[in-house]
What does this fold into?
Amino acid sequence: MKLFLLHSFLLFIIPLTANAQEVWTLQQCLETGLKNNLDFQVKQLDILSAETTHRNATLEYLPFVNVTGSHSYSIGSTIDPATNSRVSSNIQSDNFALNASMNIVDFNIFTTARRNKIAVLKAKADKEATAAEYSLTILENYYNILYTQELLKIQQSQFENAVFNLKRIEKEVEIGSRPKSDLYDMQVIYTQEDNGITTTQQLLHNQKLTLIQLMNRPDVLPDNLLVENTALPQSDIKPKAEIFENALKSYPKILSAQLSEDIAKKNIKIQKNYYLPVVQAYYNYSSFYYLPLKQMGGQQVNPFWTQITDNKNHYIGLQLNVPVFNGLRTHRDVQLAKIEHQKSVVMAEQEKIKLRQTIEQETAKQQQNTALALKLEDTRNYAQKSFETTQAKFSSGLIEAIVFTGSKNQLLTAEYNLLKAKVTLAYLALELNYLQYNKFD
It folds into this structure.
């Protein structure tokens, strides 16, 4: 009796607890996760890195300019030709130079710029691909929670029936109109349904915790989260070939794989360009200043700026660099680039196969669950009528508790299966729509 009163109290406070829960929509879960998940911040930094690397090819033709200077002392001795004797030779010298060079003909400049432009597009496609996988993961977890929430409602509704029957049997046993064995049977039913509710509540808690972790919202408590139970979307069955064609145009992982293939093609061309000559222009301006230190005879030298002006020198020219032989390194690099391109082609085809197989599996499930849901609807209706009849017979004492239990279990099973089929259809409709158009609506 104490157990009965406890659960009656729990059933009373369940609605109050539910009112304190925060309702989350699928869109809210997606937006929160995309904002808080660190994977997307990393992908955004990858995009920024690719954009920084890529720049207009004409900028690569700007010259390299540098200025050098040196200040040095030469301390020692030398032979004086006039006297053929060794004399001291201590000299301070300062050297200055300005160097500039630029490529005039370099076939890799434009090829590299084009490759880097594709790399920016690939970084964006990779971010979209990560977002797509994340969105589908959120969708799956969301509908798992939705199914478990609805399952818990069914169990709690049936549990009210168990509470009612247990209370009634207890009174009938007290007045002697029922054998005590019926009370034992009802207590078994009561505890089994109670255990089932506890198991479902624990499962729901863990599923909500998983969703919260996916959204990176540790401030949200699982018991305070309730996913929105909106009208389940209609399952529009399309031919799998049509779905696959639409998905090839929109699904980010396919686009990312194709861009990887394009980058690999450019890398082959970049390596081949090392067989071609490079023409470079260069210019050099230099000057120097020298000062003898503590020389005998007090040798006079021109002032600093006079020497800098007098000693200046200009050097300008063109340089042609023609590759002849480098130990077959270029040939090796070209072959490696070709292998990487072949790998990218295979990986792109592999992504298409994965996508096609996923669509085949999900469309098959969609067709199967559509047909199954119609049959389960009839089964549930029959089970409901059978249970109502059995409940009346049990209340009249015409059947035993074991028969009543069997009828109730049939109804519960029919309701569970129908709920699962409907939720699965809703999930598949959204998943297939996302695969086709990269969005849920």
